[in-house]
Amino acid sequence: MIPDPAPEAAASPAEGPLPRHLLPDTATIDGGRLAIGGVDVLDLCAEVGTPAFVYDEAHLRARCREAVAAWGEGATYASKAFWCRAMARLVAEEGLGVDVSTGGELHVALAGGVPPDRLVLHGNNKSEAELDAALRVGVGRIVVDSFDELDRLERLVPRTAGGPRPAVWLRVTPGVEAHTHEYVRTGQEDSKFGFGLASGAAAAAVDRVRSPRSPVELVGLHVHIGSQIFALASFARALEVLAAFAVPLDLPELGVGGGLGVGYVDGEPTPSMTEWAATVRAAVRAAGWPEGVRIAAEPGRAVVAAAAVTCYRVGTIKQLPGIRTYVSVDGGMSDNPRPVLYGSGYETFLPRAADAPRPRRVTVVGKHCESGDVIVRDGQLPGDVAVGDVLATPVTGAYGHSMASTYNKVPRPPVVFVAGGDARTVVRRETFDDLLALDA
Fold first, then answer.
1. In 3-state terms, what secondary structure has residue 271?
2. What residues are labeled active site?
C-alpha cells in the first residue's frame, strides 16, 4: 500500500473523484463500487479476469441512434474504431452503414449480418483480392484512393459484369491540416490518402472515371481530414476548399469522413454528433452544394470510445522518492497502444472507490519489456491503492481492442458487453495455446 500523501491546503481538481461524464451512460456508484449496465465491475473482474474490456451496450446503442438522428441514411460506422461480430450485429440492428477498409473488416461485417449494400469500402492500398471480394458481394460504395486502384477496377469489373456499374466515390485531399496529432492527420497535401486537389490529381481522376470507357460510376466525392478533431471549423474549412472543385461536378453524394474528437480526460471538450452534423450541413449550404446532395459521415470513436472501461489488476507498486510512483498492471501497450503511439492521455481510478478523491499522483505502466509501456503517465488514484486492486481506465472503447497485439506473447483480453444486469463475453480471452495456433 502506498502511504497517504502529505496534507495540502486544498485538493486540486485533478485530485478529486473521477468526473462522472467520463464513465459509460449506465454507470452507477453504490458505496463506492462501480456498476455498468447493472453489473458490478469488481464481481465481473473476479469472474472473467483481468485485463478486460467492459462495454456498456446501452451506451453503444444510444450513440448509434444519435448518429442516425444526426446523419439519417448517411450514418456510417467506422469499424476500425472497434470491430467484432457482436458490434457488427448491433450496428446493423441500429440501421447504420459500415465503413470497412480491409478484407478482414469486410469479412467480419458480412459475418455479423451487415447488408452488403450498406458497406463502404475504404483503404489506400486495396488489393485486387479485396476489390474482387467487394465487387462480388455488392458493397454499396467503393472509395477510390489511387490511379493504381482504378487500374485494378478496370481489370476486375468485366469479370463480375452483368449488373449495374459499381458506384464509387473519389477520395480527395483538400490541403487542410486539422489541429490534431500528425499521425492522424489525413487532409493535408502530403498524405498517403486520396487524390490531391492542388496537384491536379483529383481533376485527372474525375476525368478518367467519367470517361465513356470507365467500368465504374462516379456518384460522389469523399474527404477526411483526420481523427480526434475538436474544432468543428476544420470540417467546415475542408468543405469550403473542396466546394470550388466539387460543386460544378453536380454529384449526388458527398462523404465527409469521420474524426470527431472525444474527451479522454477532464477538461477536454466533446462536441456532439448533432453539433458536428449541423456544422457540416451549414458549410455545405454556404458552399453552394445542390440542395438534395446526400451527405454521409463515418463516426467511429464518437460512437464507441466512452462506452467502455478497461479493467486491470495491480501487481507491483514501486515508489521512487522525489521522482514518481509506478503502478504496474497486468496489461499495457498490447491492449492500449495509443499512449505509446500518440502520447494520448487517460484518467485512472479504482472501481472499488469510484467516487473517492484521488490525491496520489502515479504513473500507470504495463508489464511489457519497454520503458515506453505507459498507460497513464500522470494519473491520480486514492492514496490507499494496493497490490491486488482492480484499476480501471475509462474511455477505452475505441482503438484499444482494435489495435491490440500479442507483444511479449501476452494474450489479448476479452470483450464483455453488459446490459440489464447481464454480462456476455463477445470476444473470449486468448489463451497460450492460441499463441501457437498459427505456428507451423
1. coil
2. 369
- Please tell me whether residues 188 and 79 are part of one structural domain: yes
Q: What does DSSP say about strands 217-222 and 253-255: parallel, antiparallel, or unpaired?
A: parallel
212 phi/psi in degrees, rounded to 5: -60, -25
Distance between CA atoms of 85 and 73, rounded to whole angstroms? Answer: 22
Instruction: Grade residue 178 by pLDDT with cuts at 50, 70 and 90.
Output: low
CA 404 to each of CA 93, 264, 396, 426, 435: distance values in angstroms, whole numbers, following the listed order: 26, 19, 12, 16, 14
Q: 259: annotated binding-site residue?
A: yes
Give the integer Cα–Cα distance in Å for 8 and 14.
14
Tell me whether residue 346 is in a domain: yes
User: Is 285 annotated as belonging to a binding site?
Assistant: no
Mapping DSSP to helix (H, G, I), strand (E, B) and coil, where does residue 232 land? helix
Asked whether residue 301 is marked as a ligand-binding residue, the answer is: yes
Q: Is 177 a known ligand-binding residue? A: no
In terms of Cα–Cα distance, which of 424, 379, 395, 422 is closest to 40? 422
CB 395 within 8 A of CB 15: no
Residue 44 lies in a domain: yes
Residue 226 to residue 187: CA distance in whole angstroms: 6
Nine-digit cell string for 144: 477510390
300 annotated binding-site participant? yes
Q: Which residue has the cell 474544432?
A: 231
Amino acid at 73: E
Residue type, 289: W
pTM: 0.93
List strand residue ranges (DSSP E) for 306-388, in order. Answer: 308-320, 324-329, 360-365, 374-381
Question: Is 127 within 8 Å of 103 (Cβ atoms)?
Answer: yes
Co-location of 20 and 160 in the same domain: no
- Residue 404 structural domain: 13-56+306-436
Structure confidence at residue 191 (pLDDT): 77
Question: What are 297-325's pLDDT values in tens digits?
Answer: 999 999 999 999 999 999 999 999 999 99
Joined grid coordinates for residue 129: 483480392
286, 254: one domain: yes
Cβ neighbours of residue 192 closer than 8 Å, sequence gap 6 or more: 124
Q: CB neighbours of 323 closer than 8 A, spacing ≥ 6?
A: none
Rounded Cα–Cα distance for residues 437 and 225 (Å)? 39
